[in-house]
């Protein structure tokens, strides 16, 4: 199949946003974005995009479509506790790409670059140190603020909440507030990664309405992990739309609450492949390769608002869930309806 190049005709004109997409269209048109819309942001709210090390193509996407984002978060840093447990160390500085940052800002001078910082390999004893040593949270705040000043970041996306597995919530909130106090002095933004308030089967999550209310004054946004709903023990859609809406309503029930705008609803741009022996996340290249090889039929599931397909490999029957233009459109409609980011 010959690949289509970027073009001036819109996705609608090419009839590509449909519940019945053809595999040949996906294979032919997947690189053919609309040139005339590259610099146009159609969504009113905050748009945060992650650039991950396992998909280098994301760096190019961020440059080309910079005007469609308000924030870009390269997944660069890990926060570790020092050996003497009196300070922290930021690892991952070798990932910093200043030239790429310049290119992104050249294409959108308004964009905010907010690298992700994650607490990595913190054992229970480390977390206890962070909870009990009152000097550590301000130290982290100051350390990150200095890093931002030196490398010209606009803030950080902080992934800390899930490490504590919902224990000592008020103490963890205080830690975040102390970190934010240093950010505020330096006019830096803090976006907090948060897990969903409910999981499959109604299981209650680690981040709830009262947590959002307590933390809202100390963050510019909550990056909500509304994906990975299913797993290999229970194959199915990655992010059923009813569940996404339920997560929003549980965290911020009042439609006019100012916290709604701070909720950044997660959209997965990867898929999942389930086999009889397990399941694994897949990126676009793997998805295209499978489509090319097996030419399956894409099936629309109205309940979850996701496409999937099945194919046989040897003796095993595999199922693949992967976002399509139509499934993304349905989620964007829901996000606009709920006035979130």
UniProtKB/TrEMBL annotation:
InterPro entries documented for this protein: Chitinase_II/V-like_cat (IPR011583), Chitinase_insertion_sf (IPR029070), GH (IPR017853), Glyco_hydro18_cat (IPR001223)
- Show the Pfam families listed in the entry: Glyco_hydro_18
Gene Ontology MF terms: chitin binding; oligosaccharide binding
**Which GO CC annotations does the UniProt entry carry?**
endomembrane system; extracellular region; lysosome
Q: Which domain of life is it from?
A: Eukaryota
The GH18 domain is annotated at: 45-341
Mention one GO biological process in which this protein takes part, according to its record.
Answer: carbohydrate metabolic process
Q: Where in the cell is it found?
A: Lysosome; Secreted
Keyword list, A-Z: Lysosome, Secreted, Signal
Predominant location category: other
Q: Which SMART domains match?
A: Glyco_18 (SM00636)
The record's similarity note reads: Belongs to the glycosyl hydrolase 18 family.
Q: Entry's PANTHER family?
A: CHITINASE DOMAIN-CONTAINING PROTEIN 1, CHITINASE DOMAIN-CONTAINING PROTEIN 1 FAMILY MEMBER
Q: What is this protein called?
A: Chitinase domain-containing protein 1
User: Which organism encodes this protein?
Assistant: Dinothrombium tinctorium
Lineage summary = Eukaryota, Metazoa, Ecdysozoa, Arthropoda, Chelicerata
């Amino acid at each position: 199949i010959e690949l289509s190049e970027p073009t001036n005709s819109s996705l609608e004109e090419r009839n590509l946003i449909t519940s019945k997409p053809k595999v040949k269209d996906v294979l032919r048109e997947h690189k053919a974005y609309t040139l005339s819309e590259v610099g146009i942001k159609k969504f009113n709210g905050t748009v945060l995009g992650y650039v991950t090390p396992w998909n280098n193509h994301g760096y190019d996407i961020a440059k080309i479509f910079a005007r469609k984002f308000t924030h870009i978060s390269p997944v660069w840093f890990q926060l570790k506790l020092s050996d003497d447990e009196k300070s922290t160390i930021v690892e991952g500085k070798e990932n910093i790409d200043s030239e790429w940052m310049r290119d992104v800002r050249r294409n959108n001078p308004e964009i905010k670059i907010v690298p992700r910082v994650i607490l990595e390999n913190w054992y229970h004893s480390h977390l206890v140190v962070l909870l009990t040593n009152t000097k550590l949270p301000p130290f982290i705040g100051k350390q990150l603020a200095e890093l931002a000043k030196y490398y010209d970041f606009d803030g950080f996306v902080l992934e800390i909440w899930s490490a504590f597995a919902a224990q000592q919530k008020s103490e963890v909130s205080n830690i975040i507030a102390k970190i934010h106090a240093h950010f505020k002095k330096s006019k830096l933004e803090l976006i907090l990664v948060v897990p969903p308030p409910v999981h499959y089967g109604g299981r209650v999550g680690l981040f709830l309405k009262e947590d959002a209310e307590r933390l809202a004054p100390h963050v510019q946004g909550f990056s909500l992990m509304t994906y990975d709903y299913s797993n290999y023990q229970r194959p199915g859609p990655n992010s059923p739309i009813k569940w996404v809406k339920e997560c929003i309503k549980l965290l911020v029930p009042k439609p006019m609450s100012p916290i709604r705008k701070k909720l950044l609803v997660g959209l997965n741009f990867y898929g999942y492949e389930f086999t009889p022996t397990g399941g694994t996340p897949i990126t676009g290249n793997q998805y295209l390769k499978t489509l090319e090889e097996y030419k399956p039929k894409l099936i629309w599931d109205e309940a979850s608002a996701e496409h999937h397909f099945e194919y046989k490999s040897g003796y095993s029957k595999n199922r693949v869930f992967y976002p399509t233009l139509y499934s993304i459109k349905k989620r964007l409609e829901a996000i606009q309806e709920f006035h979130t980011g």
